[in-house]
Amino acid sequence: MQAPAKQKSPAAPSGHATSLGVPDHQQWHYSAFARPWLLLSAVTVLATLIFTMAQIGTARESALWPDLVPTDDAVPRNLEPSVVAWGGWPASNDQVRILSTLVGIFMAVVTVCVQRQPNARKAQRPMTVLCLAMVLSTALIIAALVLDVLSLLEVRGMACDPLFTTCKDEPYVFVVALDATGLGLALLLLAILLLKLLPWKNFPQALSAAVLILSLALALVQVTLLFVSFGQMSPSDTDHGGAHNIPHDVYIHQHYRRGPNFVAGGWPSVNTNLRLATVICGLTFIIFADMVNGSRRGVVCLSLGCCAITSVLGFVSFGFDIASLVAATHLPCPPGYHCAYQWFWPAPLLTFNAALFLGCFSLSECL
């Protein structure tokens, strides 16, 4: 006896429902670049939250100097006791570093644009030029790192009287750390770009996503380094060319100094509330946007709209922060103090980047 022939199962209709119960024609799937945008948005939002919680204003300068500070709210600046010698980088270091950051930011943006080129053959020639330009950018970053490390090593050999003074170089070590981070990202990005020049039949999608992530991370590091470099410029950079600056600050010990102690500043309550609202909405809608991928079009459009609104809120918060920083720079410093603003620049910078990443995610998925 012959075994009965197996019957073929009927073909599923073209509009069948998925495991989520949503028909195929009603689904909306994100592009391959959505996950990197969301990842970068989440990282910058979390970093913004850390800076916001660390810089909530508690001290009120108006209580100590009512004649100098008219506002009753916190002021985004730290009041450090008088400095014996306010340090700074040599002018050559600043010039090379600022040039490397500008070139690095430009190369990161160009890399993202070339990466989005759909036609691989048309992108081959721009990719070759991009690799050559990336080599130049990496060389500038290496030069900036070497100059900064040599300046720090030279300072470490200088004598600092431990009885009367304290020499601090932590802010300048932070710059070197940013230099090294940018160099690592640039080398990884250059290696992947060189791999793309090989005759691949199908270039791995994971490496394409890595190019985007590394490019945006490099841009973020270089923008941060640019702000920090401008914040650490000594007044002698403009007065005397800055050729003899040294990257450490010398402070008089408390028992040899008159006046009150270090006064920590903070952000006004409106700025803090706006940034916290941006952080809470950002984290909520990032998780929501990642969960609804592949759902109905209406639900995905709702998540994209919420991310776009959060992006606008972040730009508004950034505007309030910049206005507060500018207003703080116009306030006179109390006698015997140095006003330090550089520690308050990262918060608005991170808020701006978080808003930018969320806005780019919304626009890239809608267009």
From TrEMBL:
Alphabetized, the UniProt keywords read:
Membrane, Transmembrane, Transmembrane helix
Task: Answer yes or no on keyword Transmembrane helix.
Answer: yes
* Bilayer-spanning residue ranges: 37-56, 96-115, 127-152, 172-195, 207-230, 274-292, 299-323, 343-363
Its name, as the record gives it, is Uncharacterized protein
Q: Which organism is it from?
A: Eutreptiella gymnastica
